[in-house]
Design goal:
By secondary structure, the chain is of the alpha/beta class. The protein is 38% helix and 19% strand. The model has no long low-confidence stretch (mean pLDDT 97). It has one domain: Inosine-uridine Nucleoside N-ribohydrolase, Chain A (Alpha-Beta Complex). The strands form three sheets. An eight-stranded mixed β-sheet has the order 3-2-1-4-5-6-12-9, sandwiched between helices. A two-stranded antiparallel sheet has the order 7-8. Helix 1 runs parallel beside helix 11. It is globular, with a radius of gyration of 18 Å.
């Protein structure tokens, strides 16, 4: 089994990354660390507990950073709503957080593990960056960092920057420069994973508790995506990270050189990716350039059925 830590900020799309990670028999979900991003830490934390309880995922949930390293906190209320998971009424919450801070949990889990651990991020990279700065020895214990974030082409909060990277560019810089193997799944592939009306109908036919979660959340997600971007269906960004771990053939990756723009100018937070190797610099990440859309939805359906 592949041992992973999932760092997230639920978030409609994070919900189904969590579903994939919690229900696949070849993934050992060691814990979930929570960061502010799609909403405040208070809200993303409660959302994570609600999802774990509803989906019967039993693993430690640890609260982490409540704001970026340098920037002021920004949330994505226009897409995810006031709660961060608008559209679904969860049962009364009966479970609680692990007492450890996310950084402490990350450091302890990595240092005590005999095996290298895969670290998956579906929100800003603040928790991992802090852990790396506090205890650099953890870097050698990371098998790879699977990042949902960034873009080769256009952003989604500015013309240049994608939300997860833009929310804490300095944290992304620390992680990308750490020397840990990085695999980045950006908007170039996630924008192909559209929750079109036929996808909602497909999942609705499963008719179980997880399909109800999908349908109710995606209806609100799509409404907000249409209001903001005029898209016919919202891109389901975050689950591609776990889908790739389940089936690496689902995506095509390319080795490239990447830096994070920290200029505080109009391109602040951009992932500057030398996809054509103009600069002949060391290739420090792998970036996804294509995705098998049909296979992705098959994996989502399989997880919902489980």
């Amino acid at each position: 089994m592949r041992k992973i830590i999932l760092d997230c900020d639920p978030g409609h799309d994070d919900a189904f990354a969590l579903l994939l990670a919690g229900k696949d028999q070849e993934i050992d979900l060691l814990g979930i660390t929570v960061v502010s991003g799609n909403q405040t830490l208070e809200k993303t934390g409660i959302n994570t507990l609600n999802l774990c309880q509803y989906l019967d995922i039993k693993t430690p949930v640890c609260l982490g950073a409540s704001r970026p390293l340098i920037k002021e906190e920004e949330v994505c209320e226009v897409i995810h709503g006031d709660s961060g998971l608008d559209g679904f009424e969860f049962p009364n919450l009966k479970i609680g957080f692990d007492p450890r801070n996310a950084c402490d949990f990350i450091i302890q889990t990595l240092l005590e593990s005999k095996d290298k651990i895969t670290f998956v991020t579906t929100g800003p990279l603040t928790n991992l960056a802090l852990a790396m700065r506090i205890q650099p020895k953890i870097i050698d214990k990371i098998k790879e960092v699977i990042v949902m974030g960034g873009s080769i082409a256009n952003g989604n909060v500015t013309p240049a920057a994608e939300f997860n990277i833009y929310t804490d560019p300095e944290a992304a810089h620390i992680v990308f420069k750490s020397g840990a193997p990085i695999k980045m799944f950006g908007l170039d592939v996630t924008r192909k994973l559209m929750v079109l009306p036929e996808i909602i109908e497909r999942m609705k036919k499963i008719n179980n508790s997880s399909s109800k979660l999908f349908v109710d959340l995606m209806k609100v997600f799509n409404e907000n995506q249409f209001k903001v971007f005029a898209l016919p269906g919202g891109p389901l960004h975050d689950p591609i990270t776990i889908a790739y771990l389940i089936d690496p053939k689902i995506a095509t990756l390319k080795k490239v050189h990447c830096t994070i723009d920290l200029s505080h100018g109009s391109s602040y937070g951009r992932t500057n990716i030398d996809v054509f190797d103009y600069q002949h610099l060391p290739k420090n990440i792998e970036v996804a350039v294509d995705v098998n859309v049909d296979r992705f939805w098959d994996l989502i359906e399989d997880a919902i059925r489980k």
